[in-house]
Structure formats: C-alpha cells, structure tokens
Prior knowledge:
The chain is of the alpha/beta class. It contains 13 helices and ten strands.
Amino acid sequence: MLHTLSRFGRRRTLQGGAAAVVVLGLLLWWVLPLGGGEPSGSLTFSTGVRSGVYQRYGQRLEGALAKDMPKVSIRLRTSEGSQQNIERVATGKADFTIATADAVATYLQSGKPGAGRLRGCVRLYDDYIQLVVPRDSGIREVADLRGKRVGVGQKGSGVLLVADRLMRAAGVDPAADITPVQAGIDTMPERLADGRLDAFFWSGGLPTAAVQSLSEKFAIRLVPLEDALVTELQAVGGSTRYYRSAVMPADAYPQAQQGEAVPTVAVSNLLITTDRTDPLTTEAFTRTVIDSRDRIGREVHSAQLVDLRTAIYTDPLPLHEGARRYYRSAKP
C-alpha cells in the first residue's frame, strides 16, 4: 500500500514539473516572440552606374541602413544596370538590388540560374524612358534614328533592353538600321555634347542628374515616345506588359523641355532579394526603405515617390516573407 502511494506521489510530482515547463515555455514565447532579435552580418547591395539614380539612391540608403541596422555591414557595388543586378542577386553575388519590372520578368521567363529564388521587397518608383538628342537635331521620333549613332546603354543594363524593344516597335532594326553604342549614363551625355553620338536612350527616375547637368551646359531636347509605341510593345505580351504610357512633367528638365510636357514610356522599379535572405534582415531592410523616403527624397527626388500603399505590389515577384511581415506591422 505504501509502495503504491509512493508511485502515485512520484507521478504527481513529474506531471507537476512537466506542467511548469509548459507554462514557462508559454511565458517565454509571449515575452520573447519567435524571430526577434537584431539583424547582423554583412550584405552586398548592387546599385548601378556611378552617375545614375540607382547609385545615388544606394549611397543615401546605405547611411539610413547603417543607422537602423548598426550590426550589419553594407557593401555597395556598382553595376551596368538592371540585367546585371538581377543576375548578381539570383546567383548569390549580391543580397539586395534594384531592377525594373520588365527586366525581372525577362529573367524569370528565361529560366536563368536562380530565377525561382527571386523575391520582391518594395515597389519603388517609376523609371521614365528618355530619348535625348541635340536641340537642333532632325530626330523627331524613334523612326528617325535610322542611320544614326545611338547610345543604347551598357550590356547589362535595363536601358539596352527597353531601347531595343522601342526601336523594334517603331520599325527600326537595332542591329542593322543604326550604329549602336553600348555606353552608360556616365559617358553618353559627354559623347552627345562632343558630337560622337546623335542620340541616346536612358531609363531612370526624374530628374536624372547626368541628363539635368547636360541640359544646363548643352542645348538638348527630349524626343516624344507616343502612346502608339506602348500599344505596340504591349501587343508583344510577356515582359512587355510592364510598360505603360506616361508623361514627363514640364519641370523635369526645364532647360530641355522649355515648358512642354513630354509623352514617354514608364516602367516600375523593384527592390529585390532572394529566399536566401533571412526574414529578420529583409523586414528591417524594407522598413528602412519606407521610413527613409522623405529624408533621401530631399536629395534623390525619385525616392519621394515610394508609397506604402503601392509598395507591396512587386509583380512579377512574390513578396519575401520578411517584407510581408513588415507590411502587416505597418497597417494603419
């Protein structure tokens, strides 16, 4: 009888201990939520050409990230543009980058390495396609580029992608009808002013510093890109559905536009990463991008256009889980 009571007492003691462990675990879960902590380690952010908007935005974002994520070391890496940026992130050569939606969609459709791992964080601002010519040029539309020396962007840029598509939509063969010059925004303005180019394409936020600077020392004009070109592009389907008609306001480049708004083509920019990046880091990175909008926007005008209401729409990429956590926490 005593032996039986003893076993019963031991059982009660074990059960009580187990219950205490469960209660303690629940308390710890409540006080210390899963996924808590502070991001640490190092990140590489692939930007763009040195005088482009991606690079200028990245430089200012680096400062905001250093303040908000003090345990994370951020390395900026210049690039040729969207296409190279996407390849770097997809293959693990960079952790975050900015790229245009059409270039992202093209990479996904191609099935290139790492395409399935790409994730979106923020829909940022729109790029405006800018076809720049000397003011006294006879080039009035894209079709007039035949026989001309045309700057089309660097090999790994989104500019090259959209310039090729725009010319084809206008009936111009980029390989046979023009002399293509693969150069970036860091050199194309100077080449135009020196007479080594007849025109150049650029895809960037408004205003782009290099184009603005050129307009202040050399008489230039922006060639209209009419709605018909967008219709032709969208008819192709696939990644071209990300192009839309837009208007460059008259005050984007006052000296070049002389009070006139210019019709053009626009495409959205996305902040992207991959499923390799942990949710804690991605959530913090996304928060900094949104919170630093006004501060960075005072120096890089495009940053002012980042909008929490539309930032979540990162089509054609699914949202990274860390970004999703941020948007849930940021709901009013």
